Amino acid sequence: MARRKIIAGNWKMNMTPSQAVALCDTLKDLVVTDEADVVYCVPAIDIIPVVEAVKGTNVEVGAENLYFEDKGAYTGEISAEMLVDAGVKYVIIGHSERRDYFKECDCLLNKKVKQALKAGLIPILCCGESLEQREMGVTMDWIRLQIKSDLTGVTADQVKGMVIAYEPIWAIGTGKTATTEQAQEVCKGIRDCIAEIYDTDTAQAVRIQYGGSVNAGNAAELFAQPDIDGGLVGGASLKADFGKIVNYK
Question: Second label for 226, Cα 20 to 30 Å away, from 3, 81, 136, 200?
């Protein structure tokens, strides 16, 4: 099965609304492609101006988080309905920074995945191991636990439309990158895990990104791997070089 590449920028807590619009303008002509889906996952305050700024382009907008309830007394949170109404298509769930800094557990992330799917959003579900876990040889044990927990109660048809991002925590924002072989090995392991939970068709349909210090220099080699369907790009998505990542061939 030929899976369409998806290259998403995770802006994290960067870019004021005016800066966000300026970045969209800078990237507008650089990220044009017919060969991949391009997504900007932006801070909540930037969503509406970015949705406006990318109208008429090939770029879709994603959020960096959401809450698992429809509405209510949850000060500071943002609902799936709000995101959809604002023009958002994708949402990052379970980024390592959310898991670590904000102590989001798999039971919580499972609720978020289901809430996103219920609203028609496409989850970009993140998973990954720490350096200590890799050195202990439990990388796939840990990631399989995350995947199985986060997808509990999610149907095969729903998973087929999702995106899973493998992000080795030790390679995020450090300048370190998993070798191509390491990245491919884990992404294949994730696909095998999906096949085990569901079936081969589901595993072949789901798109799996690599998300650890992707840059213009390593994108082509990473994205050429059979089980890597694009990237979740951090710091490099805030620069003109993001265009080189999108047009990696």
Answer: 136
Taking the C-alpha atoms of residue 143 and residue 198, their distance in angstroms, rounded to an integer, is 16
pLDDT at 176 over 90: no
Task: Give the chain's domain count.
Answer: 1
95, 97, 104, 129: the catalytic one is 95
Element (H, E) at 166: strand 163-166
Is 167 known to be catalytic? yes
Q: Residue 139's closest CA among 164, 167, 100, 113?
A: 167
**Which H/E stretch holds residue 111?**
helix 106-119
CA 72 to chain centre: 27
Establish how many alpha carbons lie within 13 A of residue 213's alpha carbon, considering only the half-sphere containing its beta carbon.
13
State mean pLDDT over 5-27.
98
The parent domain of residue 170 ranges over 5-246
Q: How many residues does the chain have?
A: 249
Q: To the nearest 5 percent, what fractions of the chain are helix, strand and coil?
A: 45, 15, 40
CATH number at residue 67: 3.20.20.70
Cβ proximity of 41 and 54 under 8 Å? no
Question: For residue 213, what pLDDT band results from cuts at 50, 70 and 90?
Answer: confident
**Prediction pTM value:** 0.97
pLDDT at 1 over 90: no
Of the candidates 64, 97, 129, 167, the residue annotated as catalytic is: 167
Average pLDDT over residues 93-103: 96
Q: Please say if 52 is a catalytic residue.
A: no
DSSP code, position 45: G
